[in-house]
Amino acid sequence: MYPGDEEALSALKAVPGAPALLTYMQRHLTEEVSFLEHNQQMIRATAHCYSSLHQLVVQCAKILSCPVPDVYIQNNPVMNAETSGHRHTHLVLNSSLIESMTADEVSFVIGHELGHIKCGHSLYRQLGSILLDNWNNVVGQIPVPGLDLLRIPLVLAYWEWFRRAELSCDRAGLLCLQRIDPALTALGKLAGQIRGFEDQFDVESAISQTAAHQEVGKLARIISISNNLERTHPFIPDRLKQLQAYSRSTEYKDVLGGHYVRDPLGLHEGGHRITCIRCHKEVNAKLAYCPDCGQPLNHDLMTETAQGPGRVCSKCSSVLTVDEAFCPRCGTKQVTAPARSGFFFNRRK
After folding, report:
1. Confidence of residue 185 (pLDDT cuts 50, 70, 90)
2. Residues 290-329: pLDDT tens digits?
3. Spatial contact of 170 and 105, defined as CB atoms under 8 Å apart
4. DSSP category for residue 209
5. What is the per-residue pLDDT for 310?
6. Mind giving me the DSSP string for 51-98?
7. What share of residues in the chain are helix, strand, coil (percent, to 5)?
8. pTM assigned to the model
């Protein structure tokens, strides 16, 4: 993670009760709305539909050791991709991006978007936006003189974190490729691609543009900074420079050598959770066993004896909680009645 990204996330997680409330709201409202709208308006990439794109996502998710999101393709002339959701995650790839990039470059973009899942950005971006949008209402209830003046530095800090989070995700994209050249050309195409002139793009020339601030006066610099305070992404020349520097760093070499801080339980990242049938703890779906009680989570045959009658997905047989209207694994709308007796299966793929 880029410096400052993890610290800002820790501060947002420390807001009392907010992460738990937002997780509940996303799971039971916003993620279901996104799922419905994506399926109505886009084409979902699966092992049978746009299989090569789906396989790229599976491959990148395996490298980053994070859950595979739902993947959607939309017809859009803007070269872009986006990730949404915290428990039920969605990755959207625009058609123009896929058509303009090589498979390696698309993998970099996919890795970048999976970085948001791995870092757990989605939930806390929403939390930060809510806090800022409702700042005046909150401050009005707290009788502390001058408290409203804190909004300006908080806004600046929030958008600065937003941009730093993007640099973390560029690193995730590089780790999916483990080759710097296609990562840099992918970023270059996002900034200014001209079809037929791809071989004329020069990375070093683009990086040199980061020195432009030295060629203008202080007033112009201040105005430019003010105009771009709420940008969600750093400028492409700066992203090129930062990513190239990271690729040459000992930190990057350490990661490739297997020396890095691990989150073996997947507590930090977004992605689908499974409810353990023995202790009822929600754990990351990528785990084979519940870390609290040792119950196998992906065992083909699990009885109801641990928690009484349970529910399973009518399509893929994944274990569901009693209040899930849609299967988090395959998205199938569920009947209201729970499973009755006998055995049920949890065939996670």
Report:
1. very high
2. 888 888 886 343 333 333 334 567 666 565 655 567 666 6
3. no
4. G
5. 45
6. HHHHHHHHHHHHHHT-PPPEEEEE--SS--EEEE-SSS-EEEEEHHHH
7. 50, 10, 40
8. 0.75
